[in-house]
Amino acid sequence: MASLNKTSKSWGVAFFAVVTVLAIFHFNKSLNIPDILSIQFTDNWQHFKEAVSGYSLERLNKNAYLDFVFMFLYSVLFVLSIKVMAQSMGFKVHKLFYLLCIIPGAFDLVENFSFLHFVNDLDIERNFIFYYWSVRIKWFFVIAFFLINLTIVFYYGLFIIGKAYNFFFGKSNGKNR
Q1: By C-alpha distance, which of 85, 75, 76, 87 is closest to 151?
Q2: From the centroid of its chain, how far is CA 161?
């Protein structure tokens, strides 16, 4: 149980770090790109060029550089999520399974390097297919891990609500408050 508590605390720190970077993406106007998903899911080179044309090169680059930090943080979060689930359910996860946790980050690296290469020279058409598929494969895995993390957040949310309820309304040392 002590191992689960340590892993859960680490997961909480990683979750907080991921949420913090998401907040920076959202609230920092110098790097916020409100339609980043529509840019990521463009279906060809021409649509990509049109989608990024409304943003300054500096803003696009800043967003991509912060995304490198973000992908590291969410990869750590995904590894810890698998550990929390395995320890909570009392089973061991094969070490190769942890490789699945870094697949989204690996495809995000390909996406980010392609993105930076593209936006820094929009005059030359690139091999867009690598960008196209790296985005889609990344999101396939991210959605799965999102659901795992949603389950963990729900569980700990109920746990915290239960603790708060017991603190305020429960019995303490066998006596009523």
Answers
A1: 85
A2: 25
Name the 3-class secondary structure at 175.
Answer: strand
Contact 74, 18 (CB under 8 A): yes
User: Quick check: 48 and 35 in contact, CB under 8 A?
Assistant: no
Task: Print burial letters for 100-109: b (CB count within 10 Å at least 16), e (below 16).
Answer: ebbbbbbbbb
In degrees, to the nearest 5, what angle opens at C-alpha 143 toward C-alphas 100 and 156? Answer: 90
- Condensed to tens digits (0 to 9), the pLDDT of residues 74-122 reads 999 999 998 888 888 888 888 888 888 999 999 999 999 999 999 988 8
Decide: pTM greater than 0.85: no
The answer to whether the CB of 110 falls within 8 A of the CB of 37 is no
Gap between the Cα atoms of 172 and 114, Å rounded: 58
Among the listed residues 157, 155, 147, the one whose alpha carbon sits nearest the alpha carbon of residue 87: 155
Q: Which residue has the tokens 């060029």?
A: 49
Q: Rounded CA gap, 50 and 163, in Å?
A: 51
